[in-house]
Structure formats: C-alpha cells, structure tokens
Amino acid sequence: MAKKVEGWSRRDVLAAAGIGCVAMAAPKMAQATPQEADDLVKKLIGGAAPKEGKVQLKIKDVAESGAAEPIAVSVDSPMSAADHVKAIHVVAEGNPAPGVSSWFLTPKSGKAEVAFRMRLAKTQVVRAYAVMSDGSVWMAKQEIKVTIGGCGG
C-alpha cells in the first residue's frame, strides 16, 4: 500500500514527477515566420532578385495531414555546361525551421528535378528557388492548406 505524505501517495508523487519530466523534455514548437524565411533565402541566394518562371512546384492545394506531403520541383533548363541549374532550395514559411532542403546540381545531373516528402506544421506558403549557372534566380511559390499538422502542431 502506498504511503501518504501530506495528502499525496508515493504513486501520486511519481506520476507528477514523470509528467514534469515529459513537459520539460518536450521541444518548443516555435514556428518560422515569413521574415525568417526571407532571411534564409537571402543567405541561400545572395543579392539576386528572384524572378517568377522556369520553376514548377508540384504540391497539393489542401493536405488532410501534413505528416508526409509529396512535393516535386522541376526547373526548365537544358542542363548544359553553359546553362544549368546549380541549386534548388525549398523554404517553408510556417514550419519550425524555414529551410526544408537544398540540392546542388551539375550538368551531369541530367535533369533539374527533385521529388521528396515533407512535413508541414500548418497552412503556409512553400517556396522553391533555382539558382542558375549565370547567377540568375528563379522561383515558384504555393500555399498549401493543412488540416492536421505533421510537425506536432
């Protein structure tokens, strides 16, 4: 039988301590802001002004669950030595961290296409940037509505 101390049994104390440890260990689910996403993009692409076009972002408009949404990014490029995509960056404005992923390509990559799954914490804008060999940057963006967040939110 559990011994009572000031109205609490040993079992009550252990349960409360366990809940406290879990609460302290749980990560804070802060969300990135559009400004944080903009700051990251500046670091990734430098001073280039992105233009819309050349980049196609394929993602659903509505995701029932943000746990593992399929995303594809393709860039219109001949992928030749003189004209190719050097990097593709994907940024999300509302996830815990705005940087989703970056890929670095060469003409030997053959195609400027990537496909992956990503977690989405909430409804947000997803952006894709393509850095070209001539220094230009192209982009596409799309809002995806998330009904159940996949990042713990």
Description:
The chain is an alpha+beta fold. It has 2 domains: 1-29, no CATH class; 34-146, Immunoglobulin-like. The chain contains 2 helices and 11 strands. It has helices at 10-25, 34-45; strands spanning 4-5, 8-9, 51-52, 55-58, 62-63, 69-75, 85-92, 99-104, 113-118, 124-132, 137-146. The strands form 3 sheets. Strands 3, 5, 7, 8, 10 and 11 form a 6-stranded mixed sheet that branches. Strand 10 (124-132) and strand 11 (137-146) form a beta hairpin. It starts with a strand and ends in a 7-residue tail after the last strand. Residues 20-28 have low confidence and may be disordered.
Detail the topology: elements first, then pairings.
Blueprint: E1 4-5, E2 8-9, H1 10-25, H2 34-45, E3 51-52, E4 55-58, E5 62-63, E6 69-75, E7 85-92, E8 99-104, E9 113-118, E10 124-132, E11 137-146
Parallel strand pairs: 3-11, 5-11
Antiparallel strand pairs: 1-2, 4-6, 6-9, 7-8, 7-10, 10-11
Strand tally: 11
Percentage beta strand: 35-45%
What is the C-alpha radius of gyration, as a whole number of Å? Answer: 22 Å
Count of separate DSSP helical elements? 2
Unreliable segments of 5+ consecutive residues: 20-28
Write a brief caption for the model.
Residues 42-151 form the Ig-like SoxY domain. This protein has 2 helices and 11 strands.
Which descriptors would you attach to this protein?
153 residues; alpha+beta; Immunoglobulin-like; six-stranded mixed β-sheet; three-stranded antiparallel β-sheet; 38% strand
